[in-house]
Amino acid sequence: MSRRVQVVIVGSGPAGLLLGQRLHAAGIEALILERRSRDYVLGRIRAGVLEQGTVGQLEAVGVDARMHAEGLVHGGVNLAFQRRLHRIDLADLTGGKTVMVYGQTEVTRDLMDARAAAGAETVYEAQEVQPHAFDTARPYVTYKKDGRTHRIDCDAIAGCDGYHGVCRKSVPQKALRTYERVYPFGWLGLLADVPPASEELIYANSARGFALCSMRSPRRSRYYVQCSLDDKVEAWSDAAFWDELRRRIPPEAAERVTTGPSIEKSIAPLRSFVAEPLRFGRLFLCGDAGHIVPPTGAKGLNLAASDVHYLYEALRAFFLERSEAGLDSYSERALKRVWKAERFSWWFTSMMHRFPEDGPFGQKIQEAELDYLVESRAASTALAENYVGLPY
Ligand code: APR
Ligand code: PHB
User: Fold this and answer.
1) Which residue of 7, 100, 350, 377 lies most exposed, with the fewest beta carbons within 10 A?
2) 186-235: per-residue pLDDT in tens?
3) Where does 290-392 show beta strands of DSSP type E?
4) Which of 299, 338, 285, 295 is nearest to 11 (CA)?
5) What backbone phi and psi angles, to 5 degrees, belong to 251?
6) Where are the domains of the chain?
7) How do residues 53-110 score in pLDDT, each as one tens digit?
8) Is 299 designated active site?
């Protein structure tokens, strides 16, 4: 069974959904093929600190109402070290820029609902999705569902299928250059329906390891502690987690922590990863399919959004103006911003976590960097402008 659309998008995460919404608004027909069910995708717990560029794209496609109603606008973020809190005034240092705290799950839900309301099609539980002939002007994608093999002919394929997806793996390995750094620790995360310990996020560097105090709403908190890659989530009781968290943050914050039963608890590894280039003929990698950042800088979702910005502009010019200039420049434009976010995320991770192999000298360098950061307006400005998001 075969049919034709202009763009096939592989993956119904933030990248695929946002690209689909932007293309739909421009009258370009895109079909999303998603391996999992809708509910499975919505069940993922992910960071939710949105840069203004991400907010702007959701506004551009009219999927911003709930975000503005329920999201939390933050003008500052806190660094904690040597048992003290230091507020970085993001708005003051960036000429008024802020971040929007609104869970990725909610962004995904809003985009899914908008796509369904617009009558745009997503095939969920599409199995064995496979891009073909993307080195020609007549690419196509096959997949299996309900016991049948389907073929979708198209003009372009957007690989929005994440780090473990099929699209990057379908590129001849000799055509791909990859860059990677795997960090020697993980993040143990806990979600609980308790009020946050702080109105703004707290990133803590302590002798016992990194900790992060975040939130989803005034009633739902998200916390993380750095843990060993050998740790098992089953070995961490809620009580042990709360105790360790309070040991890693300053007393003035620890005494404000409200404990409660976890509704989700998991361990995630940290890596930096970039694949180059992001374009192979009519196949374009977008979001986590092309790059991964450690969550310290909260850049994963925001890089997916900036890739979508560049890829949407390229596809719009191709379909509406018959110009391939955007397709030709997509990879270079997207990677220029990706690498700046990779650098920031690596730097912030290196500064805030315990690296036992770096020894006492490494610890003293971290302390000096943190002291300089909070004492120098120039250094704080550099952190602030990266945290709120560099321009597209
Ligand atoms: N066929 C179809 N769909 C697939 C396949 C496949 N072979 N492989 C993966 N997928 C789907 C996944 O089920 C997922 O829903 O592609 C989607 C990819 O979504 P994400 O992994 O969320 O990636 P992206 O949309 O780029 O968003 C990046 O999501 O994972 C977080 O931390 C990450 O915040 C970042 C954001
Ligand atoms: C989160 O709220 O899950 C979160 C916030 C900021 C980060 C990482 C995760 O840097």
Assistant:
1) 377
2) 999 999 999 999 999 999 999 999 999 999 999 999 999 999 999 999 99
3) 291-292
4) 285
5) -50, -35
6) 2-73+99-179+271-348, 183-270+359-388
7) 999 999 999 999 999 999 999 999 999 999 999 999 999 999 999 999 999 999 999 9
8) yes
Active site residue 372: no
Residues 248, 353: Cα–Cα separation, whole Å: 11
Active site residue 140: no
Q: Say whether domain 2-73+99-179+271-348 belongs to CATH 3.40.50.2000.
A: no
Token pair for residue 117? Answer: 């309301």
pLDDT of 102-119, one tens digit each? 999 999 999 999 999 999
- The matching CATH number, chosen from 2.10.77.10, 3.30.70.260, 3.40.50.10420, 3.30.9.10, for 183-270+359-388 is 3.30.9.10
Q: Is 213 in the pocket of ligand 2 (CB under 6 A)?
A: no
Whether 314 contacts 326, CB under 8 Å: yes
Q: Which residues touch 269 (CB under 8 Å, ≥6 apart)?
A: 182, 183, 186, 229
Structure tokens at 243: 């105790």
Residues 6+ apart with CB under 8 A from 360: none
3-state helix, strand, coil in the chain (%, to 5): 40, 30, 30
C-alpha distances out from residue 38 to 43, 86, 219, 286, 341, Å? 9, 41, 26, 20, 29
Residue nearest to atom 29 of ligand 1 (CA): 301
